[in-house]
Amino acid sequence: MKRQKHIVQKVINLTPETFIIRLDRGDFQFEPGQYVVIRIPDQNKGREYSIYSGINDDYLDFLVREIPEGGFSRYLRHLLPGSELDVEGPKGYFILDEKTRKGHKAMLIATGTGISPFHSYVRSYPDLNFRVLHGVHFADEAYGRESFNPDNYLLCTSRSDGGDYFGRVTYYLKENKIDADTICYLCGNSEMIDEVSTILEKYGLPPENIRTEVFF
Ligand SMILES: Cc1cc2nc3c(=O)[nH]c(=O)nc-3n(C[C@H](O)[C@H](O)[C@H](O)COP(=O)(O)OP(=O)(O)OC[C@H]3O[C@@H](n4cnc5c(N)ncnc54)[C@H](O)[C@@H]3O)c2cc1C
């Protein structure tokens, strides 16, 4: 697996917990939806991060939530421009299938930073036929909302009513049926992915129409 050094260009704070870390791209090639392992140089310590930027961007962005009790995400937040990181990858198969790339209807369902691969999809392929369902606690966590077509984007907020729908994505999906021929991409925590998969199966979606990426 390819492992190479990348330089931190900047850290962009989005909310008190969440930030974008931007690295120089160099000659790094990937498919939207893939992730990398970011490591501290000369140490084995590393974590997986989905690529947030698009294939035509000349930088590599990662959307990271700082976990106060976690060791690694905190380290990333405090890096200064010019710092070096090791990047191993690209890895993973959470990429768009040909049918979706050619315009078949898709539903992109994320919680929190799970929006990252979807942000990369739409930055890379502007003509997708998709709807996004993004579940967060509060409305200020609508990371990258400006990159999505507002007609196709729905923010579900579970702890305040500042979004488009007040409640978790699972509640929304129980109230709003999804056509069985929709290709659904699910990304975020495992609990959401399990619950949403069960709902989609009840709506008659075959397993091949439910693609998942578990962050934790
Ligand atoms: C394929 C893959 C892709 C990933 N992509 C991203 C990404 O794009 N952005 C990102 O922030 N994280 C992502 N993660 C999670 C990331 O690898 C780390 O686990 C995370 O940054 C926490 O690391 P830590 O060492 O600070 O805390 P850890 O000690 O590793 O984690 C502590 C706890 O924090 C919780 N947690 C972990 N990640 C998150 C999160 N993103 N949001 C809320 N709670 C979390 C979990 O309950 C976990 O047990 C991804 C994980 C995988 C497997």
What does this structure look like?
With 216 residues, the chain is an alpha/beta fold. The protein folds into two domains: 3-91, Translation factors (Elongation Factor Tu (Ef-tu), domain 3); 98-214, Rossmann fold (3-Layer(aba) Sandwich), CATH 3.40.50.80. 18% of the residues lie in helices and 34% in strands. The chain has helices at 72-77, 98-101, 116-124, 169-175, 190-202, and strands at residues 3-13, 18-24, 35-39, 46-50, 59-65, 84-91, 106-111, 130-136, 153-157, 165-166, 183-188, 210-214. It has a six-stranded antiparallel β-sheet. Strand 11, helix 5 and strand 12 (210-214) form a beta-alpha-beta unit. Helix 4 runs parallel beside helix 5. The longest helix is centred in the C-terminal third of the chain and has 13 residues, at 190-202. Residues 35, 47-50, 62-65, 67, 70-74, 112-113, 116, 213, 215-216 line the site of flavin-adenine dinucleotide.
